[in-house]
Amino acid sequence: MKLVPYRLLLMPAMVMAIVSSTAVRVAPASAQEVSPQATVTSGRLTDIERVSNEALRTEIRLMKLASGFHAAWLKPDRWKSWRLFAYKMADSALTNAGMTTIAASRFQYLDDPSQAPRPYLKAGHIVNLTAASILVGGTLTETLLDRIAERRIARNKQDPASALNEFVRLRGKLDDLLAERKALVLNDSNLTQSQKGIIDADGHVLQDLRELASREFYHAYSEVAQLRCVRDTANATALFSAAAAGYMGSLQSLLSVANRHPRQTGVAGLGFITAGSSVVVTPLIVKLGGSLARKRAAGILERNGVTPTPPQEQFDLHRARFEQAVSEAPPSERSLLKAIDARNTIYKLHNEMLDARDHDRSVLRHKSKRDLAERLFFSTIVGGTNIARGSQLVVAGFHYGDMPKENFKLVASASTVFIAGSGVWMADNIQSKVREKLLERRIRVGKLSVHGRLLSDLEDLQQMEDQISVY
Predict the structure, then answer these.
(1) CA distance 434 to 383
(2) Domain span at residue 407?
(3) What radius of gyration, in Å, describes the C-alpha atoms of the chain?
(4) Reported pTM
(5) What is the spatial distance between Cα 72 and Cα 61, in angstroms, rounded to a whole number?
(6) Residue 162 included in any domain
């Protein structure tokens, strides 16, 4: 469904607000024309309206807080994407070149290993060690940049702790306003039946919006917690697997050639088995870490009374009752509720905004399942071939350390296996980047990015706040 831009829907209500406020200023009203009871009723209605409008302004600020906090953590960094691609591509391409060199050197001198030039035997291991070091250095750099970005966010009071404290404070203010409104309604015995119907339905809608704002902050806070954990866990596993492959694997292989200790090849094999196993389980570890972080965040939120159970159907029902009560009220009674049309417009816009966000979350959940299946597929191939490589090197080093020909044969076979694995790794890096750029282009054309929509929502929420501030 194509949604009308919020600011366009706000324009009629803004025009009505200006006309209404002007009419209120210029309309003559002598003491003889207005009865004392009407004056009392009008005064109490004015208080109810004032508190209702302030409650709606506070709810809008809660939505702005949740949206701004979420947007700050989802702000895209296009250079980070390219840096990560560069690290991974350099590692996979150099590893593939190193494995090819190792396999070629062993196959070439398979019949007489003693004739193999030592620099030639060491070359492939040096290339592999360089590749792993690039990924280690890149991961450490990104971890440092992530911490710098978090400090910048914290300075703007958009870190999770500050955002939660501010949300709880604002929500407490909203609760006080809703309680004050309820007391004003209960103490006003001069309200007509139609006015009571409008005010009662309006109160239920305001209460629903309070719950819906809590739900939006719940989703934002939980997603930020999950995002941080997924990012940090991915960095940790990448650092571990690269270090295991580079320093427990390739470095030990290099030392086995340099020191003429073929048995050291077995230690290198253990390093590659460890690295390969890490690659295989990384998608599941990252997924589990994100889920645990989300649960921890949910616990923190629920202790502060922020729950994810929105009364969406109830909100729709109360909005329908409110609109019906307004339409059935006599114009003379409805005119005393000055901001009623503006609030009704804002309620409709909230409904559209929340429906769009629910749809986006549903799409993202489906996409995350596909992404996990894809990561498991590629990581199983890349990690599995590295485990196979390491297993053969363990046998070559520990069982055939004193048998050069058999040792060379197994080292050549192990390297050949991971030529395929590192080739798949390169292909995965390229296809992931191409798909990422195509998706970015589609999102840019359709204006579908989550960050972009949050920024648009912030603009619309500001216009809603400006609109209700007229009263």
Answers:
(1) 23
(2) 6-19+37-468
(3) 32
(4) 0.84
(5) 16
(6) yes
